[in-house]
Specification:
mainly alpha; transmembrane helix; transmembrane
Length: 271
Amino acid sequence: MMDIFYNLTPITQALIATLFTWGMTALGAALVFATKTINQRLLDSMLGFAGGVMIAASYWSLLSPAIEMSADNAIGSWFPAAFGFLLGGVFLWGIDKILPHLHPNSPIGAAEGYHPRERKRSTLLVLAITLHNIPEGLAVGIAFGALANGGTEASLAGALTLALGIGIQNFPEGVAVSMPLRGEGMSRRKSFLYGQFSGMVEPIAAVIGAFAVAFVEPLLPYALSFAAGAMIFVVAEEVIPGSQEKGNKDLASMSLMIGFVVMMILDVALG
């Protein structure tokens, strides 16, 4: 099975991998068929765990390879990683200011973006999760796109590990959208559809990322660090605050550390 996957084009590999991560979002959203509410402490711990996975993936799967690839850079091996990282954060900051969205656990009055109060709460919640699924999809796509530039089985394993880690942390994201909507009286079916819809952007972003770096090799270290910067912006601006808004700061913080360690082990052991 792995031999067949290895022989596929990087763009196809990225598409398949992000269909898995989208499926994990749908799996989390499917909890609405089992229960109407979820314990707030559990939800906050899941969000904290997701943040830890994203932070670890940003370094081991994206920044570290970007620095290694830039050993011959005229300015220094640090430059592509630093430039791309900051550019990724600025890019997400710009989208955050434009795209109307509402972070999980937040009241409707805290909605952000352009004219957010003209939209339904359900739409704002979906857009919030969609916002940070963009860099996640890009990260997976770029990791697989790198295989077109002399990738090995080891780099394939690293890309698969990144997709696995993002898939794991997508589970609570699906929960974070569908359960609040169900708690507000929306039907199970509609809550599920809204919850899983937020992950739909990942395959699209992955194909874009894989296509870009597969054919423009010099962009690769910049693209990897760009995805890392975008992910860290999302963690700092949304995931961590969202996991602590209800007062479960210690629980969310410890869960973040556990998520970080889990992703670190996956990347070092499998990647």
